[in-house]
Structures are given as structure tokens and as C-alpha cells.
Amino acid sequence: MGTSQSTGRRKPESLDQSEFRERFLQRMIKRHPEIGRQRQLELSKIRAQAEATTVSPEDIHEARQLVLETIVNNERPVLFVNDNRIDTNGAMDFGAEAQHLLKLLANSASSIAPVLQHVGRFDVKHFPNTDFLGTGWFVDNDVVVTNRHVASLVAQAGPSRFVFRRGMGGRDIEASICNAHEQSDPANADPSRIFAVKEVLYIEPDSGLHDIAFVRVVRNVNGNSGGFIPIAEKDADDDTEVCVIGYPAKASRRIIPDQATMEKRYGGVYDVKRAAPGYSLGIRDGQLEHDCMTLGGNSGSVVLNFRGQAVGLHFSGLYHTANYGVSATVLRQYISGKRWNQPIQVETSKPSKPRKSSSEVPQQIAPPSAGQSAVVTVRAGGVSVTIPLTITVTVGSQTNLSSPAQYGVADVEKAVLAFWDARPEGVVAARVGYVDDGEKIGDIPCIAASVLPTQMAAVESSALQEFHGVPVRYLPANVQEQIDQMVPESVDSIAYDDSARKGPEFSLEPVNEEMALLLHVGPEYSWDTLKAFLDGAGLDGTGESEKSKKGMLVSAMYEFHATHIKNAIEQRLSNGGAVTLVLDNATFAGDGEGDGNFDRRDVFHRWSQQFDFSDVVAPEGVRGLISDSYHIKVTVRHDDTFWLSSGNWKGESSQPIISQDQRDNATDVDLPGNREWHVLIKNERLAKTYRSHILQDFKRSNELGGTPQPEAAGLDVMVDVAIEEAVELERKPPRRLVEPMPLQKKVRVQPLLTPDREGAVYSEAVLKLIRSATDSLLFQIPYIGMPSNPRDDRGYIDELIDALTKKLKTLRDARVILRSGGSRYSAPPHTAWYFKSKGVDIDQCLRVIQNHHTKGMIVDGQKVLIGSHNWSKPGVTLNRDASLLFNNNDVAKYYTQVFEIDWERSNPVRPRKYVKPESVLEAVGAVPPLGYRRMRLADLLKED
Questions:
Q1: Is 447 in contact with 390 (CB distance < 8 Å)?
Q2: Phi, psi angles (nearest 5°) of residue 474
Q3: Residues sharing a CB contact under 8 Å with residue 263, sequence separation 6 or more, in sequence order
Q4: For position 944, what pLDDT does the model report?
Q5: Of 886, 771, 889, 766, nearest in space to 511 by CA
Q6: Of 101, 294, 526, 570, which is the most buried if we count CB atoms within 10 A?
């Protein structure tokens, strides 16, 4: 039923969806035999109809599951809470058991209504991409309970108290509990219903059993302003009527595949207070289970019985599988004992002196009650009781894998998970790594732990050097890993409007038509070809007509900085043309003139006053068009010719001005700028598709509150970033340059866009492309985003990496070129470690080269993927990106020769060495410390 996601590690084993639905039906039959008989009759008819045909048992099972899914959905209503009452209007289309629950709710209104005001939304400020994280509810006049995985996003343990994390712009995250946000609310909540979080009192440690946290809020208790929800005296029995009160947020397609049913049940309205009645499934493994309908924002919701008492704190749910909550027994124990008054537990594995190895993973069996001093701990091979003396009773033999010959990669993978669960303070990433062998990545696997540079010395001097018999190698967290600690990862839902893009003009189906193409690459011909396109040159021997030149140029661009491109655009505008631009706020990061750049704010404002020019910055986050980045690079001309690329409109990298003298000497002196793959195409259907989507982006961005230029707040916060001192091999000159290639013929090509269908359009097409490879696969991509949390399930990106890994192991010719240096994202050793751990011969399959920004793939010498999609979680799902998938051997031959030229001048992946930790520090003083560069936080966050 639920989809709430929790980072709490301890969760009971759950049933799969089919088992859950079958159990749901049987429980309903037991509760209401008359309802159950009707449902059984429906299922019997389905089976009889299926058996009367020649369908397989699998088809019969699938048909049954579809009916069961409908039954489950129809029997668990989701209702609005308005004016502190549960609104049952419009709930008549639910099933018979749902109607029974609604009647009981109505009869219990006098008990439930008074406590609804004590449930609020956990709102945040300065938090990236969202303004709320979950739900909380009052357990005392000024104390609110929520989930550990909610509170830990805004605060972390300090030496003596919890401190708020830094958010966007370097400012402390601010939190509040608002008991409004009802469907009937005005746009701005009554200030008297907003309670600022004064302090975070308690967050259950990661090693603890319960996903629970407490915060103190500013709440003046006078008259009717106080009060809280009482905790039930005993846990909810099986089949007890319960109701979840909270703020469900829209779930992505990957979590709930049946988006239509979700939209129907929630009416397309999310993030407001809801009531979801259902039944308790009793206590299992010490935790409450229930079958109410929940979504992600329900994290921290109260689970009420129909007497208005809390029987649980909801913390996690899996769609049509199970919902979990902290039980009333635990809640009473924590609240009556005022758990928040206990000293903060800082989780660390620091002994008094370095230890060589450990196969012990502490796990606290039960939290001590108030005043209790003894701690009972279970470890592999023994039980310890701290009184404070420690007495260890050995109950078996321990296995100490001290030699590499005694363990394999599978053992290391298990050890990484255990290490992550008991990681020392300061460790922000853990993965399978390999011990260096001189200047090569060696063959001995290890646990590779990334540590915040500020805590590197303490961890190296005191943390375990072996864990479960596997060596541990501590490395300073790279810039990306540090940023991940400062700014939490991308959101999982956005306000993109798939439903508005249904007509043929938005079709993303393959096109197989006659068309004109101009294939070209950078840096050698990036600007020359783009300039000709902007000036009106045609692909079929003719140029734009004067009428066409006065038509609209529609462009979607991540970064637009270059003065020479600005001049070309301004020339079109001066000639009477129109320009519509949709931009990412990265365009304005580091705004100002110099180094070939122009002042974007000033120029765009002037254009809007003088010419037919419109622009908008795409909003980001849960209420935005995209999650993190409007990362697309597409421009469509009025004459149905369009430019699609991996390259931004940046002069120093993607669009450098290259002279003929430089080209003549390019095999001796390498050209400046990035390797980029570009394509120009003249085709009405494809051009119409991209034009329609960009114009809809423009419209939707304005509807979502987008503005022509981003607000200045946050862009000017400065940080000091260590200058990279790792030795990088310069990119060798190419053996030859590849000139642009015109092509006029029938070509099959499919347009691919994200975030359409939440990444399914791109990801499913590329998965199919990779899996279709039978002989060769050549892939050039700046980076492949590897997870820092080994327990993280990242959806499509993990599926893509898995599919690629299998082909690297099995194809006759499978090779990948990554980028070395130049970006906070680039971590080739992480990718190399992963591939090697899966059995890939990285010496043969993996290379790196500086200054490449291409995102291209060639399969079996026939199919080509070219575009702007990065391989990261948001890059393949909820960012705006565009690619093309060609099925044509001429296109494949052209880009294959470019790949081979780069492979020849690439280098093996080097071990991850460093001279000093690359810290990201607050900018203090007039100049940065020696060895650091000062830059805007916005520039760092938006490095491409």
C-alpha cells in the first residue's frame, strides 16, 4: 500500500506484492464474509473466462493480480483533512470495506477531530529543491516526533548537541512544523499554525533499532494553543481499525507504476494533510504493520486508532507490500523516559590506538530505559555486557581472513555493507576498492572509505585498518562526495507535465524518413558549424530565406556564456528574428564579463527591451520542471533545421574559436576545448518535436513561477576549494582531424528526452540499445556516477550500469572512455574499481582522456546514441536532457572513427592518489588559503 521511503536499515522481511494482495483478500474475507464472497465471485469469473481460452497459467495469474490490485486500491480510501476534520465528501466510489471504515470514522469524529491539529508538515528553508521533508506530530506541548531519516536531513550530531546542517547558499537549514497545509488553506498559512523548530533534541543513531527523532518547537502554550496526541496504552492488535494522518507527496513511476490509479486516488493533489484509514496487521519483529495507503511525505505520520490515540509512528512503506511504524510500546518508552535528555551518541569506531582487524559489528539489542547504565551488545563470536566492566563470553569460533587468498570480491562486498553500517564518524562513502600496485590499480580488493578531509587525520590514526579480515583504505572524500554531504541528493518527484505533451507534435517515436544531416565534432569544428547554422546556412545546398531568418529561433541551453555566440544571436535579433530561450540557472553562475564571456543579466534584459526576445530559467525541485539541471543543448531554427549537442554555449570549452592555423598544426599541438559530438538535422517531424517540447518547457516554467533571471540570493556565497594537485597526463594531439560529414538519405532516428515519463523514455531505450549489442559497444561518457552509499538503490542508473557491465565482460569489443580531471564528478578510479570487482578486464576496456565532454555510444557499428545525457541518477531520470538514437551505418562509421582517435590518445585509469585532501571550506578573509581557489558555491554546484 505504502511508498514512504526510509533510510532506517532495520526493517522486517516483507512479502512480495502478489502475496500481500492474496493475504489482503483473505483478511478481508475473514473480517467481512459478505464482502469477501462478492470478491471471490469476481475472481472466479476471471479464472473461468481465462480457462475457457488457451491462455497460460502465467496469464491467469496476471489477470488475477490485476483484479486483486483493483480490490486493494478501492478498499483503502485517502481523504482530505480540512478545518481539522476528515472530509469524506466524494468518497462514495470506494469499495464496501472502505465504506465500512468511513462509517466508523464518522462515528469516531468526536475522538479523532481534536487531535488532527497536533499533526503538521515538516517544512524546511534553504534545503535544496524542496520545501518539506515529511510529517511530525506533538507528543508534548513543545516536542514533536518524526522519523530519524527526516530529522537527519536537517541536523547532525555535534560534540554536545545536534546542529543544523548547511543548506543552499551556505545558510543553516531552517525547519518548522505547520499544522495547516490543508486543501482548503489559503496560499499562505496562518502564522499561528507555524511552529519553528528551535532545536533538534534527539536522532536515533544509525545503529539503533527505531526510525525516530524528536525536535523542540517554539509554541506558546496558552488557552487552546497547547496539547498533544496521547499514546495508546497497548500496541494495536491485528485487524484494529487505524488511520494514518500526514502529508503524502507524489510518488515517481518507479515506485508506483500505476500512476493513473494514484492520480485518481489523490486527485492530483499532494503535499496537503490527508487521512488514510485501514487496518493494523499487528506487531511483527517488534514493529507495527498496517495496510493504510501512504506516499513518501507520510514519513513521520501518526498512526491513530479510532479513539484518537497514537498506536504508531509511520516510517516506511512499499507499494502493495507493507507499511511499517514504530510501535506504541516503543513510543511510550521513549517519551515517558524523555529519551531526548540523554547524552548525544556520536557513532564512531575509534579505539584508543589503531587496531589491525575486526570481525565485530556492534548491534544494540534494545535501547536502555531512562537511567539504565548497562549496554548489551552482540558481536560476531560473543556477547558483551557493559556494566561498565566488559565481560565477553565466546560462543563460537571467529574467522579472520587475514590473507587476500582467503577472501574474494563477494566477501569484500559483504564487508563493505557491514562497514558502512558501523562506519566511523567522518566516513561519507564506502565501496569495493583495490590496493594500488605502483601506478596501476592492483588486484587485491579492499574496502575503500572516503573521509571528510577535515577528519582525515583523526580517522587514519584511530580507525580500523582491517574489517572482517578485509583491509580498509581511507581516502579523502573528493569534492563531489563533500558536496553530497552539504547538499542532499536530488528529489524523486517534480512538476513536469507529461499529461500536457500528448499530441503528435510531442511524439518521441522513431522517425524513418529522408533527411539532411551534418555530422561534426569539436573542438575542431564546433564553432564554425554552429556559427553557420545561426547565420542561416542550409544543409541541402540552400540557406534560410529572408522570411525564415525573421522567424523564431527556439533554444534550450544549460550554459550560455560565450560572447561570440551572443553576437551571432544578437545579429539575428537585429535582422528582425525572434528568439525564445529556456535556460538553467547555471547560465548565470559567475555572471559577468571577461574571459570571452558577457554579462548575461544585462544583455538578456536589454534584448527583452529592444527585440522580440523571451527567456525563462527553468524552476528546479519538487515544484519545478526538473530536479537539478536543465542540462539540454538543443536549438531549433524556423526552417525545421535543428542543432543537438553535448556541448554548451561556452567559448573556452565547448565552442572555442579555432583558427585554420591551429587546425593545420593540430596533430602536433592539441587544440583547446572539449571533445564534443554534435549533429545538425533538417527534418520537419524531428524539429517539430523538439520545438514543441522546448516551447512547452517555456510555458510550464512560467506557470511554475520561473523568471527570466534567477534571484541573486545564494549565487554570491563563496567557498574555498583546494586546487587539485594530482598529476594528470595531458591530452595528446589527435593523429588526424575529422571534418564535418554531410549526409542526405533516409535515416531511422528516435528522439529521446528526460524527464519524460520520469526517465523511462531515455533509460528504457538505452537499456534496449545496450542489451541488443552482439559484437561491439563503444561508449564515450565523461563520468559514470557510482553510489557513495552501498545500500542505495538508484533505479535506472543502476540498471544501465549493470547492463553495460555485462557487455564489457562478454562482447568481442567493448570499451569505455571516461574523462580525467576537470570536474567534481569525475572519479574514474571509482568506476574502474566497480568494473574490476564485477570481472571486467579494465586494462582492455577502460581508458581516460582529459577535456572530453561527449555523451555518445556506438553499438555493433550500426546504432549511435548522441546527446547531452550524463550517467547519474538525475541525469537519466529527472533532469532535462536530449539525445538522438540513430540506426544507420554511415552515422556509426563517422563517430566510430572519432572514438578510435580518442582511444589511441587516451590513458589507463591511474590509482586514486592525492597530495593533500581537496577540502571545500567556507570562504573566510580577503583571500583564500594557499593552495585553494575561491569560487561561488553556485558555480561549484553547477559544474557540468
A1: no
A2: -95, 130
A3: none
A4: 58
A5: 886
A6: 294
**Which amino acid appears at position 61 of this protein?**
H
pLDDT at 612: 96
Question: What does pTM read for this prediction?
Answer: 0.76
Among the listed residues 818, 653, 652, 821, the one whose alpha carbon sits nearest the alpha carbon of residue 725: 821
Q: 33-51 and 17-31 are packed helices; what angle lies between their axes, rounded to 10 degrees?
A: 130
Task: Specify whether the CB–CB gap between 578 and 553 falls below 8 A.
Answer: yes
**CA dist., res. 230 & res. 227, Å (int):** 9
Asked, as a colleague might, if the bond just before 740 is cis with ω within 30 of 0, I would say no
Low-confidence ranges of the chain (pLDDT < 50): 4-15, 347-402, 713-715, 725-727, 915
Q: Which residues of 517-554 are buried (b: 16+ CB within 10 A; e: fewer)?
A: bbbbbbbbbbbbbbbbbbebebbeeeebeeebbebbbb
Q: How many residues does the chain have?
A: 944
Domains in the chain: ranges and CATH: 115-217 (2.40.10.10), 404-477 (no CATH), 741-904 (3.30.870.10)
Q: What is the pLDDT of residue 717?
A: 64
The residues, any chain, with a CB within 8 Å of residue 872's CB and separated by 6 or more, are: 783, 785, 797, 825
Dihedral angle computed from the Cα positions of residues 431, 432, 436 and 440, in that order, rounded to the nearest 10 degrees: -100
Q: What is the pLDDT of residues 157-170, one digit of tens each?
A: 887 889 998 776 66
Cα gap 39→25, rounded to integer Å = 8
Residue with cell 569489443: 813
Beta strands in 236-286 (DSSP E): 241-246, 274-284
* Residue 521, C-alpha cell as written in the block: 565534432
C-alpha torsion 346→348→351→353, nearest 10: -110
**679 with 520: CB under 8 angstroms?**
yes
pLDDT at 835: 97
**What's the chain's Rg over C-alpha atoms?**
30
Closest CA relative to residue 780, chosen from 890, 903, 909:
903
Distances, alpha carbon 832 to alpha carbons 2, 429, 447, 778, in Å? 37, 16, 14, 16
Amino acid identity of 686? L
Tell me, what amino acid is at 512? N
User: CA 782, CA 819: separation in Å to the nearest integer?
Assistant: 5
Position 354 scores a pLDDT of 33
Residues 67 and 73: their CA atoms lie apart, in Å, by 10
Q: What is the amino acid identity at position 918? A: E
The answer to whether residues 516 and 682 touch, using CB atoms and an 8 Å cutoff, is: yes
Q: What are phi and psi of 568, to 5 degrees?
A: -65, -40
Is-contact 426 408, C-beta < 8 A?
Answer: no
pLDDT tens figures, 4-29 = 444 333 333 334 667 777 788 888 88
320/671 Cα distance (integer angstroms): 56
Burial class (CB in 10 A: 0-12, 13-18, 19+), 410: exposed
DSSP 649: B
- The backbone torsions φ and ψ at residue 418, rounded to the nearest 5 degrees and listed phi first, read -65, -40
> Under a CB-based contact definition with an 8 Å cutoff, are residues 816 and 779 in contact?
yes
Examine residue 708 and say whether the peptide bond preceding it is cis (omega within 30 degrees of 0). Answer: no
Neighbours of 904 (CB within 10 A): 12
